[in-house]
C-alpha cells in the first residue's frame, strides 16, 4: 500500500487514477508521494519515506528541487498541461490592457440605477475607448509550452510576433508558426514591441530580468504582461516606468502589496491555470507520473533526475537507486550485487547534471544486507525496492 498527501487541492479526475493500492493521507507522515500546486515547500520537513513529489503545474520554484535531489527525492512537473489555460488568460490580458473594459464594466455597475443609463453610456463611452491588437508587435520572452501557444494565437489574431528563447527546445520550435520573427537578442524585443509578455521559469538568471535597464530600452507606451512569476520583474522599477508614462499598462497574475491597487496595473490572483481543463490535465499527468515511478521506477518529466524507462518489471525484483553523477558508481553497485550472487537481468543508468538514476532488474531478490551496502556507497541518496 502506498500513501500520498496533497498539499493543495488536486482535481479528482487525477486522484481517481490512484487504485486500491493507494491511500490518501491527511498528513505527510509515512507518505511515499506528495502532490502539490503552489504551496511553498522550502521550509517543510519531509519524512524520509517520501521518494516523489509531483507538481501539478509547470513552475517548481515553490519546491526545494536541489535539496530533494540530494535526498534522492524525484520531483516531477507536468509540462504543457496547463499551457492553454495560461495562453487564454494572456490573450485576455492583452485585450484588457488595450481598452478600458474593466473601467467600462465598473462604470455600468455604478450607474446601473440611472433611468437614462442608455443615453449616458453613449456620452461617456469615449473615456473607455482604446486600441486594437491586430497589427501591433508582440514580443514573447520564453517560447516553451505557454510562450509558443501565445505566439501562434497572437499570430492568428493578426499581431506581428517576435520571439526570444536562446534555449528553445526542438519540440517547441516545431510547434511555432513560421511567421514568428526569431529575435536573437532581448534588445530587439525591447526596442520593437508594443506588447511584451514573459514566459520563462523563475531562476537566478531570470530573477528581475525586467529591470530599470530593460524598461529604459522599451518603446514608450509599452504594455508588459507577466503570467510567469512576479519576481521576474523589478516591480519598483516597473511602477516608476508606469508613473512616468513609459509603460502604459502592467498586467500581472501575481497579487502582492507592490502592485495591488496601483493605477495602470491589472492584477489577477494567480488564475492562469485555474480552469477545469488545466487543473484536470495537470492532476492526471501528475498522478500517472507518480504511479509509474512508484510501481515501475520509471521517470518521465522530472526536473531533478533524468528520464528513465524500463517498462513494467518482469524480473523477480527491481531496485531503484538515486545517486550523484560520479565515476565508479556502477562498478560499486554491480560488485555488491555480484558478491551476493545476484544476477542482473536488465539495467539502465542515466544522468542529469549532478544527479543520476540507476534501475536494476534482478533475477533473485536482494537481501537487506546488500540493500544496506548499496545505501552506504558514497554518493547514493536512496535505494528503493520497486518490486
Ligand atoms: N500563471 C500561472 O498560473 C502559470 C504560470 N506559469 C509560469 O510560466 C512559466 C513558463 O511555463 P511553460 O511555458 O509551461 O514552461 P516551459 O518550460 O515549457 O517554457 C519555458 C521556456 O523558457 C525558456 N527560457 C528559459 N530561460 C530563458 C531566458 N533567460 N530567456 C528566454 N527564454 C528562456 C526555456 O527555454 C523554455 O522554452 C513557468 O515556469 C511558471 O513559472 C506556468 C503555468 C501556469
Ligand atoms: O497550480 C496553479 O494554479 C499554479 C500554476 C502555475 O503557476 C504553474 O503551473 O507554474
Your description of this structure?
- There is one protein chain.
- Helix content is 32%, strand content 21%.
- It has 387 residues and is of the alpha/beta class.
- It folds into 3 domains: 1-82 and 275-304, Rossmann fold (3-Layer(aba) Sandwich), CATH 3.40.50.720; 83-98 and 131-267, 3-Layer(aba) Sandwich (Rossmann fold); 305-387, 2-Layer Sandwich (Alpha-Beta Plaits).
- Strands 8-7-6-9-10-11-12 form a 7-stranded parallel sheet, with helices on both faces. A 5-stranded parallel sheet has the order 2-1-3-4-5.
- Helix 1 (12-15) links the parallel strand 1 (2-6) and strand 2.
- The chain is elongated and about 90 Å long.
- The two termini are 12 Å apart.
- The mean pLDDT is 97.
- The chain binds 1,4-dihydronicotinamide adenine dinucleotide and 2-oxoglutaric acid.
- 2-oxoglutaric acid is lined by residues 37-38, 57-59, 82, 270, 272-274.
Labels describing this entry:
binds 1,4-dihydronicotinamide adenine dinucleotide, about 375 residues, five-stranded parallel β-sheet, about 20% strand, seven-stranded parallel β-sheet, Alpha-Beta Plaits, alpha/beta, Rossmann fold, 13 helices, about 30% helix, binds 2-oxoglutaric acid
Amino acid at each position: 500500500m502506498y500513501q500520498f498527501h496533497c498539499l493543495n487541492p488536486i482535481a479528482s479526475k487525477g486522484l481517481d487514477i490512484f487504485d486500491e493500492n493507494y491511500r490518501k493521507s491527511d498528513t505527510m507522515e509515512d507518505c511515499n508521494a506528495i502532490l502539490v500546486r503552489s504551496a511553498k515547500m522550502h521550509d517543510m520537513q519531509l519524512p524520509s519515506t517520501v521518494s516523489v513529489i509531483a507538481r501539478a503545474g509547470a513552475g517548481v520554484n515553490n519546491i526545494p528541487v536541489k535539496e530533494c535531489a540530494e535526498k534522492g527525492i524525484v520531483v516531477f512537473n507536468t509540462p504543457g498541461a496547463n499551457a492553454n489555460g495560461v495562453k487564454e488568460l494572456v490573450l485576455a490580458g492583452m485585450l484588457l490592457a488595450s481598452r478600458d473594459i474593466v473601467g467600462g464594466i465598473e462604470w455600468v455597475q455604478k450607474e446601473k440605477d440611472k433611468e437614462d443609463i442608455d443615453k449616458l453610456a453613449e456620452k461617456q463611452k469615449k473615456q473607455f475607448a482604446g486600441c486594437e491588437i491586430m497589427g501591433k508587435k508582440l514580443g514573447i520572452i520564453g517560447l516553451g509550452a505557454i510562450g509558443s501557444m501565445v505566439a501562434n494565437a497572437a499570430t492568428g489574431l493578426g499581431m506581428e510576433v517576435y520571439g526570444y528563447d536562446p534555449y528553445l527546445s526542438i519540440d517547441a520550435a516545431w510547434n511555432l508558426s513560421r511567421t514568428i520573427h526569431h529575435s536573437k537578442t532581448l534588445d530587439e524585443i525591447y526596442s520593437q514591441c508594443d506588447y511584451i509578455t514573459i514566459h520563462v521559469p523563475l531562476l537566478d538568471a531570470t530573477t528581475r530580468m525586467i529591470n530599470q535597464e530593460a524598461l529604459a530600452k522599451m518603446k514608450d507606451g509599452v504594455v508588459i504582461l507577466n503570467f510567469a512569476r512576479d519576481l521576474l520583474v523589478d516591480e519598483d522599477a516597473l511602477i516608476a516606468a508606469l508613473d512616468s508614462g513609459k509603460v502604459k499598462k502592467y498586467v500581472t497574475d501575481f497579487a502582492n502589496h507592490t502592485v495591488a491597487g496601483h493605477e495602470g496595473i491589472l492584477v489577477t490572483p494567480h488564475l492562469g491555470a485555474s480552469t477545469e481543463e488545466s487543473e484536470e490535465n495537470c492532476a492526471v499527468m501528475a498522478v500517472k507520473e507518480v504511479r509509474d515511478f512508484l510501481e515501475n521506477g520509471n521517470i518521465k518529466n522530472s526536473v531533478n533526475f533524468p528520464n528513465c524507462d524500463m517498462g513494467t518489471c518482469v524480473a523477480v525484483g527491481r531496485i531503484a537507486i538515486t545517486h550523484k553523477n560520479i565515476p565508479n558508481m556502477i562498478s560499486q553497485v554491480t560488485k555488491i550485487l555480484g558478491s551476493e550472487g545476484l544476477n542482473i537481468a536488465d539495467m539502465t543508468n542515466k544522468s542529469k547534471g549532478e544527479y543520476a538514476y540507476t534501475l536494476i532488474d534482478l533475477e533473485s531478490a536482494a537481501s537487506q544486507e546488500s540493500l544496506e551496502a548499496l545505501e552506504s556507497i558514497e554518493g547514493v541518496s536512496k535505494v528503493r525496492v520497486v518490486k
